[in-house]
Write a structure and sequence with these properties.
The chain has 96 residues and is of the alpha+beta class. The chain is built from four helices and two strands; from the N terminus they run H-E-E-H-H-H. It has a two-stranded antiparallel sheet. Strand 1 and strand 2 form a beta hairpin.
C-alpha cells in the first residue's frame, strides 16, 4: 500500500474513535446564543468537515492564465523538432 493511503486510513480510524468517545452533550456559547446544549460529536464532526473543506480550497492549484503574454518566441526554443522540414526522409522512414 502507498504511504499516503496508510496515513489517510490511520487518520480516519483515529478520528472515528475520537468522535465515538465524545458523544455526551456539552453547553457551548455559539456567537450570540448562550448555553446551547449540543453533542460534542456533532461539534467535532462540523469542525472536522469544515477543516477538510478549507484544506481542499487552500491546496488546490491556481488555474489562472496570463492574459496578453506573447509566447511565439518561446515555442521555437522549446520544441525545435516540431517543424516538418527538420527531419530527413530516412529519419521519417525510421520513425514510422
Amino acid at each position: 500500500m502507498r504511504t499516503k493511503i496508510i496515513f489517510l486510513l490511520t487518520v480516519a480510524v483515529l478520528l472515528t474513535v475520537l468522535l465515538m468517545q465524545n458523544n455526551q452533550e456539552a453547553k457551548f456559547n455559539i456567537l450570540f446564543f448562550s448555553d446551547v446544549a449540543v453533542s460534542k460529536l456533532s461539534v467535532l464532526l462540523v469542525v472536522t468537515i469544515a477543516s477538510f473543506l478549507a484544506g481542499i480550497v487552500i491546496a488546490r492549484p491556481n488555474k489562472r492564465r496570463t492574459v496578453g503574454t506573447d509566447f511565439e518566441d518561446d515555442e521555437d526554443d522549446e520544441h525545435p523538432n516540431t517543424k516538418s522540414n527538420t527531419l530527413s526522409d530516412e529519419d521519417r522512414d525510421y520513425l514510422h
